[in-house]
Amino acid sequence: MKKSTMDTSSLLEVDGLSVEYQLNGMALRAIEDVSFSVQAGEAVALVGESGSGKTTTAMAIAGLLSLNARVSHGMVRYQGERLPIDDDAAMRPHRWSEISVVFQGAMNALNPVHRIIKQIAEPCILKQGLSFSEATARARELLELAGIPPDRGEAYPHELSGGMRQRVMIAMALACRPSIVIGDEPTTALDVITQAQILKLLGDLRSRLDLGLILITHDLSVVAESCDRVMIMYAGRLVEDGPVADVFAQPKHPYTQLLIESIPNPAGGKRMIQPIPGDPPNLMNRPSGCAFHPRCRLAMAVCAAELPSLDSIGSGRVACHLHRSLTQEEKVAVHA
Predict the structure, then answer these.
(1) I need a labelling partner for 125 at 20 to 30 A (CA). Which of 47, 83, 141, 304 fits?
(2) Exposed/middle/buried for 11, CB within 10 Å: 0-12, 13-18, 19+?
(3) What does the longest C-alpha to C-alpha distance in the chain come to?
(4) SS3 for 141?
């Protein structure tokens, strides 16, 4: 039985979300029928290889899709109210006040010709109507909250380290006191020590401010350290969803199993690291049935013929024919 995705107690609800990109007169489905919810204080990870639809999902939720993209189906609700994610002007009051984004690549996201404190203060002025002095005071508080000495607010972005710039991005995301923060690979290109510091900061802020956190990443080791629940995406669809501990201990989808085998054991034990065979699918020529079947070591005849639904199993959900009753003909293995 398919799990209901609409929970009135949820802070954020994503229901049946689908997004298409227009490219050379073609409509390419980047994400399809994505559904999940986020509770206050919960950290949820979206994980998958490049091109799996993680960032498109995040940008759709925030109403920040590129001009050649559109929401073709589904909706997003915040505290039970539908968000106008397909209307930029109507969505502006909700951005940063309710949902904010920590973008990857802080050097590209920050304005190089303005001091840090001005960039943090600006949304407070525009969104909350604070005076310049009030907004500046708020910016100094946010810098301190993010672990940056307030006097460093007078610096320009290029005068800060990569880790400090990422902390600035977190401070900016919190400027208007949102309830949901989306981190779009916020630790990309940072060294492991700085990455650990940023993840700890996000965890501390989540606990202190009761934030709902959506973390976009391709790195399952990041998820193991910082999230409550993990959702695995492949070719624009959710293929597995469950508590982090359960998914790591007993991954149900073959793709999830391969993702876990491709990273060092987060528990510290020895394990042979295995690469995932093949390449992610081309959206212009998406495989039939389950999109993962050409790379799957457990693929069966039914996998190429029929798209599996995302069904409840135990504490999570999985979209895989291995977890439902099949006829003998459907069970025929494709790969020896």
Answers:
(1) 83
(2) buried
(3) 73
(4) helix
Interatomic CA distance for residues 9 and 136, integer angstroms: 35
In whole angstroms, what is the distance from residue 245 CA to residue 227 CA? 10
Q: How far apart are CA 133 and CA 121, in angstroms?
A: 9
Please tell me the distance from the alpha carbon of residue 170 to that of residue 237, in angstroms, as a whole number: 28
Give how far Cα 255 sits from Cα of 28, 94, 113, 251, 320, Å.
Answer: 23, 35, 44, 9, 10
Supply the DSSP symbol for 11: S
The C-alpha torsion from 275 through 277 and 279 to 285, rounded to 10°, is -150
Predicted confidence (pLDDT) per residue in 33-69, tens digit: 999 999 999 999 999 998 899 999 999 999 999 999 9
Separation CA 20–CA 102 (nearest Å): 23
The pLDDT-based confidence of 335 (bands split at 50, 70, 90) is low
Give the residue ranges of DSSP H helices in 146-294: 162-173, 192-209, 220-226, 244-249, 254-261
List strands edge to edge, sheet with 26-38: 26-38, 12-23, 69-78, 81-82
Nearest C-alpha neighbor of 195 from the set 171, 176, 218, 167: 167
* pLDDT mean over 226-232: 95
List, in order, residues 6 or more apart from 158 with CB less than 8 Å away.
107, 112
Q: Report the C-alpha gap between 81 and 178 in whole angstroms.
A: 16
Amino acid at 6: M
Structure tokens at 268: 């510290």
Instruction: Look at residue 197 and tell me whether its pLDDT is greater than 70.
Output: yes
Residue whose pair of structure tokens reads 């003909």 in the numeric block: 329
Give the mean model confidence (pLDDT) for residues 137-161: 94
Q: What are phi and psi of 56, to 5 degrees?
A: -60, -40
- In 3D, which of 274, 275, 299, 276 has the Cα closest to residue 287? 299
How far is Cα of residue 80 from the mean position of the Cα atoms in its chain?
21
What's at 144, amino acid-wise?
E
